[in-house]
Amino acid sequence: MSTPISWLLASLMFLALAAGGRRVPAPPPAHGMLVVANQREHTALLIDPETRQELAKVTVGVNGHEVAVSPDSRFAYVPIYGNSGVGKPGTDGATIDIVDLHERKLAATIDLGKPLRPHRAEFGRDGLLYVTAELAKAVDVIDPATRKVIREIPTGAIESHMIVISPDGRRAYTANVAAGSVSVLDLEQRALVTVIPVAKTVQRISISADGKRVFTHDQDTARIAIIDTSTNKVASWISLPATVYSSSATPDGRKLLAASPSGKLFVIDLATGRLEQSFDIPAALGELLITPDGKSAFVSCPQAGTIEVLDIPGDKLLQPIKLTQGVDGLAWAPAIP
What we know:
Distance between the termini: 20 Å
Radius of gyration: 19 Å
Number of helices: 1
CATH architecture: 7 Propeller
Mean pLDDT: 92
CATH class: Mainly Beta
Number of domains: 1
Shape: globular
Largest sheet: 4 strands, antiparallel
Structural class: mainly beta
CATH topology: Methylamine Dehydrogenase, Chain H
Low-confidence stretches: 1-23
Strand order of the largest sheet: 3-2-1-28
Strand content: over 45%
């Protein structure tokens, strides 16, 4: 693979500055960067997915479970949840740490004003940051420019843990763990639309590339709920050999990848709803991320301390990225100019 001229110039500039005694961060990989929240170490890790090397480690608060990257790829936002699991006793986080991906250091901290246990963060098409606020049964809306909370949207349910936003930016959907439901939010009106009953307990949530289907995972029965976003009702179920914790749909809309705590990565044909293939991975409660080009999938395995890598077109597992125990939330940052 040839080296882009811009990348070569950036590397030469880095060497020149280093030789002059000034310490500057090395340039990011031209192909994109994986940002990983490590709960156990209280860090955000910057990873080159091709070399499988850790580029930087930035200390954040206790504990950051998830991470979101700004649309311009300049900053990563790590909600500081606290030292507990969802629904369990422990500290109650009230901040979001901001990591400068260019300078590779902690840039600022957003004070949410009250204990919320903020968990999952997503950027909307409006450029605002939407963060689940479990203790408020809400989603906080944050202006990244002012780093202030500008609105709180009620979810109508406890333990609103994860959030996805529709491709058109008009709707958000939260997975409400112990409530066993999914809340539908109108982001234009900043209001609750409805709460969809799903199961006794659910975990995590994903959405199809066309926004027509939302997926969440029954934790008591080995099945995935498919919610029709035009009716806001559970339209059908995908039955599997084991329960699923996280999932992600491929950009072409053909497949749903789902990670099971039993140590399986399932590949599901969305046209038929049938299990197409399964791969052995470490038993884990982690996150699943597919790159925007649909070529690679990453699965975090906190207990094993690895990021498993699936070559989607090649239909094969590659060598894992070996890190440390506690790796959890994942986000993708395209090459930073």
